[in-house]
Amino acid sequence: MARAVPEDPQFQTESEREVWERLVRSLPEECVVLAGLRITDEGKDHEADAIVLIPGAGVVVVEVKGGSVWVDDAGEWWQGSGSRPRRVDPVSQARSTKYAIRTYIERDPRWRDSSHSRIRYAHAVVVPYSDFPGDAESPDCPRWLLHDRGDQAQLAQRLSAMPQLEASNNRKPDVDDIDLIVEILTGRFAGTAFDPSAEADERESAADRLTAEQAILLKVTRLLRRVEVRGGAGSGKTVLALTQAKELSRGSSDRPAERVALVCYSIGLAEWWKRYFDTVPRRQRPAFVGTFHELGMSWGAPEGDRIDSAFWEEELPALMADLAAGLDPGHRFDSVIVDEAQDFADAWWTPLMKALRDEEQGGLYVYSDENQRIFQRFGRPPVELVPLVLDHNLRNTRQIAQVFGPLAPMRMHLRGGDGPEVTFVPSSGDAAIDTADEQVDALLDEGWHPGHVAMLTTGKRHPEQAERQARLDQRGYWATYWDEEDVFYGHVLGCKGLERRAVVLCLNESEPQVRAKERLYVGLSRATDRLVVVGDPEVVRGMGGPDVARRLGL
Q: Cα-flanking dihedrals φ and ψ of residue 129, to 5°?
C-alpha cells in the first residue's frame, strides 16, 4: 500500500474517497497519495482531490468528478442529474492546480537550496461512475488523460504510465524528492504550540454534526402537534428547540408558516436565543423569543421583581392569563415552544395555552429534563403530550458526561468524544471561592481563552458576579457571557441551557442545600471540554452520592 497523507482524510464526496482508497491500495509502498490539498496563489484558490507522488515516474494531480459526467455537442462538460446538471471544467481544474502546486514547490527555499531541478508533472481527470468511448478526446483532453468507470481497475498503472510523464524531458523524482515534496506540501509553521481550543473546536464540530442529524426527529414527528422531548444534559434539546422554531416559522411546501413563540425561564438562555436569531433570515425568526416574564410584558404586564415570589408565582401568571384571553387573533400564536420546561409552575401554562389561536389543536412543544428541576416548581402542561426521549449525550466529553452520569434522568449514550480528565480540588466551603479563582488562573495557563472559561458557584455568588450585576443590571450582566476577553462568573441557577468549554465548578457551601443533587447536576454538565470541581469531599458525597464521588476520584 502507498503512504496516505493525511492517514484518515475527510472527503466532500464518496467518489473522492473511493478513488483515494483505490490508489492507496494499488500503488507500491514507496508512493504517496495526498488528499484534499488546498493551495492558494496570487490568482486564485485551488484544490487537488488527490496528488499521487510516484518515485521513478512523477507527480500526478487528480481531479475527481463523481456521479454522471458527460460532454455535450459543444464540448462543454456537465455533471449531475438530467434535471439539474451543472457545468464543470475538470480538465482546466486539474491543469491549473498542477501548475499551482509545481510553482509552490519550486518556490520553496528547501527545494531551491538543495538545487533540485524540475521534475515531471502530469494532471488527470477521474470519473469513476461514468463511461466514455475509447476514442473520446479533445485537444486539451486526450483519452489517456481521462479515466472512466472501465479504467478504474487499472487506475494506478494508468497514472504511473501517463504520456505526460513518459515524454517529459524533466527529471524523474526519486524517493528523497518525494519526501521533500510531502514536507513542503504539508506546510511549515515554526513557534506553534498546543492549543486546547483546537481539540475543543473539533469536538464541537462533531457535536454540531450529530445534533443536525438528530433533527431528523422533527421530520418524523412533523404531524404531531403536542410533543414533549425529554433528555439529559448535553442531549441537544435546546438546539432542537431552536431548529423547530425556525422550521415552523419558515413553513414548507406542504405546511404554512406559523406564528411561533419560543419561551423559557432563564434570562441567560433567552439572551442567547436572541443573539442566535439575529443571525438567521427574518422569515425563520419566531414572532416572540424570550422569557415567560418578557412574554407577559409584551402583552402589557408590569416588569415586577424576579425575587418577589408572590408576584412571580401567582400575580403575574394570573394577569397574563387575562391578557392572553384578550389578545386579538393577529397577536396569538399557532405554536408555542417551551425549553427547560421543568422550570415552569402549573399556573404558567394557562396563559401559554390561552395565547394559542387554536387552544384545542394549536402546537405545544415542550423540552424538559426533570433532573434539572432546581426550583421549587412542579408544574405540568394541562394537556396530553406525546413523549420523545433523547438518550445520547452529544455536547460533553465522555470524561465529563461519565462524572454526572449517575445524576442524569436516564442512561445516556456518550458520543461527545474524548477530552481531558475531570479534576477535583479539595477545599473547605469557606475557602472554595479563593481556591476556584486559582483554578481559573490554572486553566488560563493551560492555554484556554478567557472567553471560553466560566466559574460557576452553587452557594453564594462570586464577588465578581455580584459586582457586575450591581453595575450593569441583569441584561448588561448577561451580555458579559459573550465577552470573548474575560472569564464569565455565574451561578448554576442561571446557567441552565448554556455551556462553556472550560468550567470551574465551585461548591462554596459547607453542607448540601435544597435541591443540591439537581444543582450539582446542572453545574457538572455546563462544561463541554474541561471541568474542574472545587469543594469539600463530604459536600460532594452529600450532593451527588457515592457514585459521583467515586467518579471524581474521591
A: -115, 5
